[in-house]
Design brief:
Length: 480
């Protein structure tokens, strides 16, 4: 009898311990970063786009907060992602430029190993961590995602990838070329309509797949599905397997980045669009939107929607000539420090935590998403010293998103890409490209068309002095 009673008490305590452990795990929020590639500011319905329906991304915005002045820290892929992964301006550690092609596999080119990633910090605090999709932060062994804090990796290491394996069945493909098959310039379409070449950019399509296999962990995998679908499948599988523990999922779609490839199913939805390049882009964006919806549905099915912080953003502005991606009403695009290159669709949602339907006009940056995620996970409060926290450049956005405060303390946002330089402070922005500073009031001049430098010399001087002080803290780029 005593043995039975002792066993029952032991079983009860064990069960309570498991339940307490599970409850604690469930109280620690999951974090998902959904990063899309080269999507312009003006395409989503919630950002004013009217040509291409994006109901799932719009619904995500409606369920949380949509930032109208959400910025990334660089106007192209890799440098922008380096900041997102660390919560620090990438120029602090020399990641200033965008490695492409063979540079991805060059020794020493990647996110410096001394920099701790958000995945490092979350995994060390007990989170399961996974990366699905594009890495682009180093293509050699030392920079592999699973050496940078990720338990799992399914994706590719370089800047881009064809969406389906050759010979590209079931898709219509648009490629940049220097010369058409007849030796001329312009646009050429194959007799079956499956292949379009265009010389309008004067360059050939990069060899995205060269030395850049699709990997599961470090092993090449023979993937037959369209990558947009494959990445969604893997993300949903990760969510399902880890629903009983806190997790961090970095879902980095390569869509809508080139090469432009659209499936028959989605192309038919946009048969009314006459220009085939724009039609392909529309099909790719609709395909992406539907897959984002599947990920959100997986959270609901898994019963963890209320315990998951979702951050959605593009890694930079749209390259309009390359993709047709619109940054309206902003000036410029990918590669530039005009707002069209750095102000992006930016959404945060967390059911019953972030107030739904918010439109946040305060300037924020991708590095804020990193710090916010670390804060809600309890990492900054429990594991980082004050000195370590001070090295992070982002801020915690939760007080604003939960209504604890109605505004952010005004602070500058900085950019440097070679001779291209910019700073935003409140409504005002300065920008230059090896010449004199220009000054714009973005509240009244969102397209940056009226230079007020001569009318506001004192303001310009104050802002340029802030940039100079910040610039003195940055280091020289590790490569160009």
């Amino acid at each position: 009898m005593k043995q039975t009673l002792s066993f029952l008490i032991s079983l009860l305590l064990s069960t309570l311990g498991v339940q307490t452990s599970l409850l604690f795990a469930q109280q620690r929020p999951n974090v998902i970063f959904i990063v899309v590639d080269d999507l312009g500011y003006g395409e989503l319905g919630c950002y004013g786009g009217k040509a291409i329906p994006t109901p799932h991304m719009d619904a995500l915005a409606a369920s949380g907060a949509r930032f109208t002045n959400g910025y990334v820290t660089a106007p192209f892929c890799a440098a922008s992602r380096a900041a997102l992964m660390t919560g620090r301006y990438q120029t602090r550690f020399g990641f200033e430029f965008n490695p492409i092609g063979a540079k991805n596999a060059a020794a020493g080119i990647g996110l410096p190993v001394a920099e701790k990633t958000i995945a490092d910090r979350l995994r060390d605090s007990g989170y399961a961590t996974g990366l699905v999709g594009k890495w682009h932060l180093g293509g050699t062994a030392v920079f592999h995602p699973q050496r940078r804090g990720f338990d799992e990796f399914f994706g590719f290491l370089h800047e881009g990838h064809f969406y389906v394996p050759p010979p590209w069945k079931g898709v219509t493909t648009w490629l940049r070329r220097k010369t058409l098959p007849n030796g001329g310039q312009g646009r050429w379409t194959s007799s079956d309509g499956r292949m379009i070449w265009s010389t309008h950019l004067g360059s050939n399509e990069p060899e995205y797949d060269t030395d850049n296999p699709l990997l599961r962990s470090s092993q090449p995998t023979d993937e037959k599905a369209n990558l947009t679908d494959a990445f969604t499948r893997e993300a949903c599988d990760f969510i399902g397997r880890h629903r009983e523990q806190p997790f961090f999922l970095y879902l980095a779609y390569n869509s809508v980045h080139s090469p432009m490839q659209a499936t028959d199913y989605y192309l038919k939805k946009f048969a009314h669009i006459e220009d085939i390049q724009r039609r392909i882009f529309a099909a790719m964006l609709a395909h992406l939107d539907e897959n984002v919806g599947k990920v959100l549905a997986q959270l609901r099915v898994s019963g963890i929607e209320e315990n998951t912080l979702i951050v959605f953003l593009s890694d930079n502005g749209g390259p309009t000539k390359e993709l047709t991606s619109s940054n309206a009403p902003l000036q410029g695009g990918k590669g530039e420090l005009w707002d069209g290159g750095i102000r992006v669709p930016f959404i945060a949602a967390w059911k019953n935590h972030i107030n739904a339907g918010q439109v946040v006009d305060a300037p924020v940056a991708s590095i804020d998403a990193t710090v916010t995620a670390l804060k809600v996970a309890g990492v900054l409060a429990t594991e980082l010293s004050t000195q370590a926290e001070s090295k992070l450049d982002g801020i915690n956005l939760m007080p604003l998103l939960t209504g604890k405060t109605t505004q952010l303390t005004e602070r500058p946002l900085f950019w440097r890409v070679g001779r291209k330089e910019a700073l935003r402070l409140g409504d005002w922005k300065i920008i230059r490209d090896g010449k004199e500073w220009q000054l714009f009031n973005l509240t009244y001049d969102i397209s940056e068309t009226r230079n007020l430098a001569t009318q506001e010399p004192a303001r310009l001087q104050r802002m340029s002095a802030l940039w100079d002080k910040w610039n003195a803290e940055q280091i020289d780029p590790l490569w160009k």
